[in-house]
Amino acid sequence: MKFSPQDQIKQLTQHTAQVLPQAELVKKLERKKPLKIKFGADPTAADLHLGHAVVLSKLRQFQDLGHEIIFLIGDFTARIGDPTGKSKTRPPLSEEQIKQNAATYLEQVVKILDKKKLKIVYNSKWLSKLSFADVLKLCGKVTLARITERDDFAKRIKSNTAIGLHELLYPIMQGYDSVELHADVELGGTDQTFNLLMGRHMQEQSGQEGQIVLTMPILEGLDGTEKMSKSLNNYVGLNEDAKQAFAKLMSISDKLMWRYYALLLLKSESEIKQMQQDVKIEKRHPMNLKKTLAFEIIERFWSKEDALEGQQNFEAIFQQKDYSQALQVKISNEISSPCWIVDLLKNTGAVKTSSEAKRLIEAGSVSINNKKVEEFHSQANWKQGSILKVGKKKIFKLI
Amino acid sequence: MKFSPQDQIKQLTQHTAQVLPQAELVKKLERKKPLKIKFGADPTAADLHLGHAVVLSKLRQFQDLGHEIIFLIGDFTARIGDPTGKSKTRPPLSEEQIKQNAATYLEQVVKILDKKKLKIVYNSKWLSKLSFADVLKLCGKVTLARITERDDFAKRIKSNTAIGLHELLYPIMQGYDSVELHADVELGGTDQTFNLLMGRHMQEQSGQEGQIVLTMPILEGLDGTEKMSKSLNNYVGLNEDAKQAFAKLMSISDKLMWRYYALLLLKSESEIKQMQQDVKIEKRHPMNLKKTLAFEIIERFWSKEDALEGQQNFEAIFQQKDYSQALQVKISNEISSPCWIVDLLKNTGAVKTSSEAKRLIEAGSVSINNKKVEEFHSQANWKQGSILKVGKKKIFKLI
User: Fold this and answer.
1) pTM confidence score
2) Chain B nearest CA to A175, separation (Å)
3) Which of A103-107, B177-181, B328-332 is predicted least confidently?
4) DSSP of B172-183, one letter per residue?
5) I need a labelling partner for B318 at 20 to 30 A (CA). Which of A2, A193, A255, B343 fits?
6) Where exactly are the structural domains of chain B?
7) Would you call B121 an interface residue with chain A, using a CB distance cutoff of 8 Å?
8) Do A164 and B130 touch (CB under 8 A)?
9) CATH architecture of the domain formed by B328-398
């Protein structure tokens, strides 16, 4: 432990949403022994994105300070699937699938975490051994009122949406994982606060010292308003092409830039304040700071080579207007030429709705091979290699 | 099966509170195979009383018609105890205690049921083998809303009284017992309706034909208003001295007599109507009908000899005023002579409250050795063998 407890606390609590309770984290650090940091993940075939990187980056910080990360794969639930028997949304996964998903997950995780300092565990190891009598004893440690405080349960009760009795047992399982692991700290997004606190509760009920619950804010997506998510298409995937990721990062607002500096690059508040001051007195240009941000994020989560390439590519396309390197977008075979411009725009993913397309066209922000599209209700001619521009930031080479 | 399905239905549905659904019971009976009738009991050291005899008598009727009674001892829960860990009210019982309690229970049960036609099972046999995964699957068959419909849960939620999560699993267990037993019918008091329906639900969810739920009314105690229970001291215990039981039965109101005829002796409605008509036209005296009731109950649940002795004893004391055979009551050593009359009355159990004692004394209904007690605030002299009369029906020999 090369850093003092005080130094560690300063770093670790920075940019967190909550540390419950902070005083106990100090106490644990003062023992000067590596802490056990729990982080749980579902072995569903997930494409991780920068939203996930927020918690992973905080975990990396713990790792760098000498603590042990226990990466828990929640294979037990996945193996059972959704037991309602009514919904087909969550069929049980085979052991083979779970292993493969876990591997995919870990491949992405080690872009951020140090592989060598990672302990990987599967909760089926202990959960599959529990008997009904054990389950009853665990359940006896929690009241119904406490469980139904959980936000999504509370909402569903209010709106009369069915809750399967088994769902109430899931927080119990997560909590029991902490007991088995003797976790000192558990990390998650703020949407996980309830489940993490359940771990603390279950540990205390079992005579252990309760874990510290450390939550990180939820990262806004590229649009700056909604939570980053794949389904909203406002994300940068950890497996994405670095050039594309660089360009996407360059499209965020100046305001969002500070947030990404804090949560993805873990810059301290004073560093951020200094940069903001520099912008204010026109010492530095926001565009340059954004390039630095994009460069450092790609360098951190991809590689330095990727970052250099991403920057070159961005500068060629957006600054030198050399579109030969523009992002290639495969257009579906169903879209012929000519076709309705709105269909083409939707197919690239540049717009999500017709009204969005209409607004952009009417603002004169859409062009094909530098020829502005004038009418919303019009046909567009395009071919392999055509350059489609949508607004200032989206430039695609159609293939 | 010597009775036709139609004859059986007529007998079996008589005096029931509910048969859910009756049409299905007909269908099951029409298959002309013995039905599996489930009845569950907690292996707590219980003194059974005539309140329990209502359901047991209905079970005996099923037995007499050729059906199989499965007497389920709920040893699994008893072995776990109350897992809250906070309340000491329900400590786990040892296997030894459970066996002994079950034996005590069965000794009393076979006063009503035919021992030779009784299948006894313990639910730990299957419940102790369930894994966490099995429990999750079972829980997935039930919604939270459904479980919290149960009367006592609903009341506790409304009054913010804590419900341990494990408590929600108890109906699931009872329900799963029905699945394991492939029960055709389950019997219980009306207070058990929810749990019995859960058995039906769980069977249907498991692809079985759902059991019929047959509930019996709750028997009023000797006071004619409250439910018969030991704690209210308005009961006749199955292990009680037959002479005492006979005298207690003679103390009930005329109105309650019809209820006991129906629920304990299973007299048909037409038989009861005939008796009521006979009283109305003064062909029979209610006192004689009550003697017949007491005689037949003692004959049924004790023996014919007990019934004869009980009747002789009652007639000697209450009709020939020969108190030598009066019910002996042991007075606590703490009660000296003389003592406050109110303390003496309470000690015999004849009254529960001081105000009840006051009312009876002021009405001139209390005497010791035929000497009326005049004052509520007075001392009473008594000795071994003194006869204490409280009202018309309670006559004790103090020892």
Assistant:
1) 0.77
2) 14
3) B328-332
4) HHHHHHHHHHT-
5) B343
6) 5-216, 242-323, 328-398
7) no
8) no
9) Roll (3.10)
